[in-house]
UniProtKB/TrEMBL annotation:
Originating organism: Flavobacterium macacae
Lineage of source species: Bacteria, Pseudomonadati, Bacteroidota, Flavobacteriia, Flavobacteriales
UniProt name for this protein: Translation elongation factor EFTu/EF1A C-terminal domain-containing protein
Lineage top rank: taxon: Bacteria
GO molecular function: GTP binding
Keyword entries, A-Z: GTP-binding, Nucleotide-binding
Length: 110
């Protein structure tokens, strides 16, 4: 099982549509925004099977949230989110797998 909080399929906005001009390295830490929670949150993206992602690419990544208090019991496979650099939309993602920490919490709630 994962050591990170979840795995997501990430799609980076193309440079033509305002995306990054330089590639993102594994360990990139944009802000994440989920539609059901007010605010933005930091999350570290560790790319699977690559070290660099270019604008317009789609890649799987393990995501480690910096603060998990707002997310326990709220993350699920299929949940989508966006990620930003400041006010600039860099890409979007969809959760494909939940990490053990959140699986245990969700099982306790049922």
């Amino acid at each position: 099982m994962l050591q990170s909080h979840f795995v997501a399929l990430l799609t980076y906005v193309s440079e033509k549509n305002g995306g990054r001009k330089t590639p993102a390295s594994s360990g990139y830490r944009p802000t994440l925004k989920f539609t059901y929670i007010d605010g933005e949150f930091s999350g570290v993206q560790h790319f699977i099977d690559t070290d660099l992602v270019f604008a317009g690419d789609t890649v799987s990544a393990e995501i480690t949230l910096i603060n998990t208090d707002n997310f326990k019991g709220k993350l699920y496979v299929g949940l989508d989110f966006e990620f930003f650099e400041g006010p600039i939309l860099i890409g979007s993602g969809i959760i494909t797998q939940i990490g053990k920490e959140f699986m245990l919490f969700q099982n306790e709630k049922r």
